Fold these 2 entries.
Entry 1:
Amino acid sequence: MPHYLRYIVTDERDFSLAALQDGLRAVDPAWTFANLTAGMPATAELHHSGERLASLELDRREVEIFKEEIAELIEIAENEPGAHQGVVLIALRKARALLAVEVHWGDREPEETRALLTPLFAWLFEHCKGLQHEDGVG
C-alpha cells in the first residue's frame, strides 16, 4: 500500500520541481531527479546516491486532484480538533500547491527511509512556506 508525505505550499513565490532539484543538489550533489516533467502535474522520481526514495507529484490549485486532496485534508483537520487546528486550516485554505511524496521503502527499514528523506523536508521548510502532512498522522 502506498505511503504518502505531503507538503502543502502556502508560499506566494512560484515553486517548481526544477527549483527543488536545484536546491537539493546545491546541498548535496547525490540528490537526483529522474524523469522530471514540467507539466501539470509535474512529476519526478527522487533518488539519493542512486537509490530511489520517492515519486514526486506537484499539483497546483487549478488542478482537480489538488482541489480533491485539499478538501479531504480540510475535512480531516476539521474533525480532529487540537492545539494547532486553526493554523492547519488556515494553511490548507491558502494553499497554492501540493507536493505529494510517495515513499519507496525498498529494502530499508521505515525509519531509515524517513531519515534519508529528512533533507528534502528540511530544504522545503527553509525555502518555501508550507505545512507537512503524513498519511495516518493527523
Entry 2:
Amino acid sequence: MGLPQQSWYSVDLSILIPTKGRTGQLQTLVNHLRASIPSEISYEILIRDASPENGHHIEGAKHIYAQEFPGQAFNKMAEYAQGEFLFPLGDDMRIYPRTIPLALTIMRGLPQGTVGIPFHADPSFPCHAYLMTPEMW
C-alpha cells in the first residue's frame, strides 16, 4: 500500500517543530516520529529552536538554533520545507501510528489550492494538527 510520489517534491511530508527550552526532550519526540511513520512515506523533520545554542544535536532531524518567536520559526521552516505537505507539530506532542498515512490520504483527496484542514486521527489520543500545502506560503 504505497502512497503515490509527486515528482516535483523531495518528500511527501515536512514535519515542522518550533521549540524553546525543551532541547532535552526533542530526541525522544524525533525517535517517536521515526518509529511511527511507515517506511513507504518519505519525510523530513525540521526543528527551529529558540533556546540558546548548547551544542545538543538531534539525530534524524534538521535542528537549527535561532532566536525568534514561534510564528517566525514556523514561517522560516515552511520556506525551506521540501515536502508536498506541511505538518506542524508541538514539541511536546506524540502521534498515533495511523496519523500520517491518514493525513496524507485526506490531503491528497482535497481540491488543488486547499490551504489546510483541522485534523485529529484518533479522538482518544491527545494530538491534533493543521495540515497545509506549502505553495500557499
